[in-house]
Design a protein that fits this description.
By secondary structure, the protein is α/β, with parallel strands linked by helices. It has an eight-stranded mixed beta sheet, with helices on both faces. Strands 3-2-7-8 form a four-stranded mixed beta sheet. α4 runs parallel beside α5 and α8 runs antiparallel to α9. The protein is 34% helix and 26% strand. It starts with a helix and ends in a 5-residue tail after the last helix. It has one domain: 3-Layer(aba) Sandwich (UDP-N-acetylmuramoyl-L-alanine:D-glutamate ligase).
């Protein structure tokens, strides 16, 4: 794809409205230096320089979209704790609509804390309790969704496996989207054997794809188009999930798009240097869906998503892509 075609697609981004559904996380980063080993145990002592926080999980998908789209809404669960208030503040600062949030005083807002020293992650500390919304909250959420569905262009379901999603909620979302003729994409979690019939595209990474297809891990083959096992996995998932496309991210080997009516299409990675893969999948599903909603073909959408994720892995932390950065990666016509 050249820059002229990309800009023709991107010119529609600012008119689009999307909804992101899934597990919400507050990502915290503690940045510092290591100059010595602790005398108490054989572990490094991190001298803290600064701390930062970002929306994570499904909230990071929304944050990636907000850089480009006109309006973003978020559906997920938070508590009534200081961490929830901080996450709300960050999301409102990014201009993300929070009317569909489920707030439960008994819920522990999920927090992931990463300690970074000399550009390397030393340890990650997770605080979470995997509980989802109750029946009353789910029904209230579906009613809110019905009121919103006519005004949005697409929906992203982001499953981080933290308990917010259920088959009941997924079925309701997909049914409402189907009646309204909306695009629905999914970033799945193999720990949850959800049925995705009726969605447009499901985007697992390589390990998730193998697990979801019930196949043991198989070493990558280069080029991926000659990877017989990967091709079999893609075909299995197209049939099992009943979707038009399956988009498999392959890390340093790029992306493979499986289509019911065409040969698998491989796009090599564009990443020059990898610093941090945190949130790369979020960027991929965000830009892929946005491009589809803007009228791109699945192959074009995959190319745009691949370019965007290649930028993100070259940054530290839960990063996003700026429109100018993405446009600059495409060659002139």
């Amino acid at each position: 794809m050249n820059r002229t075609r990309y800009q023709a697609i991107a010119s529609r981004f600012s008119d689009l409205k999307l909804l992101v559904v899934g597990d919400l996380i507050l990502d915290r980063f503690i940045w510092g230096k290591v100059r010595r080993i602790s005398p108490e145990a054989p572990v490094p002592v991190v001298e803290v320089d600064r701390e930062t926080s970002y929306p994570g999980g499904a909230a990071n998908v929304a944050r990636n979209l907000r850089e480009f789209a006109g309006e973003i809404h978020l559906l997920g669960q938070i508590g009534a704790c200081p961490e929830a208030a901080h996450l709300r503040e960050l999301l409102l600062r990014d201009g993300i609509g929070l009317d569909l949030l489920v707030e439960d005083p008994g819920y522990q807002t999920i927090v992931k804390t990463r300690i970074i020293a000399q550009h390397q992650q030393v340890v990650r500390v997770d605080r979470e309790r995997k509980t989802g919304p109750n029946a009353v909250q789910v029904n209230g959420t579906i009613e809110k969704l019905r009121a919103l569905i006519g005004s949005i262009d697409g929906i992203i379901i982001e499953d981080y496996g933290k308990g917010f999603l259920s088959q009941e909620l997924i079925d309701a979302i997909v049914a409402e989207a189907g009646r309204a003729g909306k695009i629905v994409t999914v970033d799945p979690n193999p720990a949850n054997a959800f049925q995705w019939t009726g969605v447009t595209t499901v985007k697992p990474n390589r390990n998730e794809a193998y697990a979801s297809a019930g196949r043991a891990y198989h070493p990558p083959v280069d080029p991926p188009t000659r990877d017989t096992v990967l091709r079999e996995v893609g075909a299995t998932l197209l049939e099992r999930w009943g979707t038009q496309n399956v988009l498999v991210t392959l890390g340093e080997h790029g992306i493979m798009l499986f289509d019911r009516e065409k040969e698998p299409f491989h796009i090599p990675t564009r990443a020059q240097e990898v610093y941090d893969v945190s949130g790369a999948g979020d960027t991929t599903i965000a830009l892929f869906t946005l491009a589809l909603c803007a009228g791109a073909t699945p192959v074009e959408a995959a190319e745009i998503a691949n370019q965007a994720s290649g930028i993100v892995v070259g940054k530290l932390g839960t990063a996003t892509v700026a429109p100018g950065e993405l446009s600059a990666t495409f060659p002139d016509a």
